[in-house]
């Protein structure tokens, strides 16, 4: 059998890269040592943040703030949110600052809903209180950034709200806009593309399923094609010209089935007004009230709980990578020389390899060796055709990862 030598920055007949990027899930480092749901996630620059929520793991509401570094795949704790701990708050990013507020907390039989609003500066690691939200205390509202403004939409309090509020960070002022027309008013999911906001509004208890486009420039709403599987408590985000909605709880629609909570992900094309299903998380549970944020061409999703299993709260964390099929490595530097034939993948490096790990397109490890030498060989004879990740961890604690497609 003839052996072909190449680096994984090239593509030849045995390994080929598809220029149409696809997506796949990779499991990352868990968020701290305890579970949570109803937290808020956002990203400032190249760092992700998670704040607040509720953890039945340690039986408390949370006001902690954690920062995620996608390069080192590590979490570091930052300054706690200085007001009362809570869940089901809102957050968004404007410029180089994060904003967080609203939410709910139970004090015995007393329910407290908040209307305070705070700004977080990652440079100084300080919180500053801003003007209160004028719509009144509420939880499970929807918040988004669009056109250099923040928006808080609908939510639940002593009643369900339909109001829409625009926040200007320069003047620290709120302006009320036209009401949201959706059937559901809380636990919404959505994303923004350019000056448009898209919101999935699903009343899973009465069967309503709507999807709305909000033009922030004209303050008008337009109905669009709804997501094929309605849900509440989902996550939403956008990358480039596409939007994404996934996970969530199907509520009364699927009571008594094994699909109460979802682990799926759907891609929305605003040009065709159509949805396409992406690979689901490769776990045997769903989740709702999770967090998500985007950094570069990747989305990050984690935490939440699965109401199918009342005690199942989560602290796992996943990357949805959209660069599969490109000829760019996941990490730069330390590039090994790779020799591949139909039976093996041979690695030759200038320094000692502590571990070589082969993962499938869902981020699950399928083959791992610890050669502790400058060379390693992985048996790929029985691997099915498809995308894989090669992750190399060197003895000096540096790393190299890349993607490839096996015919």
Task: Lay out the secondary structure.
Elements: E1 4-6, E2 22-28, E3 40-44, E4 47-55, E5 60-69, E6 74-78, E7 90-94, E8 97-101, E9 104-107, E10 110-113, E11 117-121, E12 126-130, E13 142-146, E14 149-156, E15 160-168, E16 173-177, E17 189-193, E18 196-203, E19 208-215, E20 220-224, E21 235-239, E22 242-249, E23 261-269, E24 274-278, E25 291-295, E26 298-302, E27 317-324, E28 337-340, E29 344-360, E30 365-369, E31 373-379, E32 386-394, E33 399-406
Antiparallel strand pairs: 1-28, 2-27, 3-4, 4-5, 5-6, 7-8, 8-11, 9-10, 11-12, 13-14, 14-15, 15-16, 17-18, 18-19, 19-20, 21-22, 22-23, 23-24, 25-26, 26-27, 28-29, 29-30, 29-31, 29-32, 32-33
Folded structure, characterized:
The structure is a single chain. This protein is an all-beta fold. The N terminus is likely disordered. Strands 1, 28, 29, 30, 31, 32 and 33 form a 7-stranded antiparallel sheet that branches. Strands 2-27-26-25 form a 4-stranded antiparallel sheet, with no helix packed on it. A 4-stranded antiparallel sheet has the order 3-4-5-6, with no helix packed on it. The chain has 2 domains: 92 residues, Sandwich (Immunoglobulin-like); 301 residues, Neuraminidase, CATH 2.120.10.
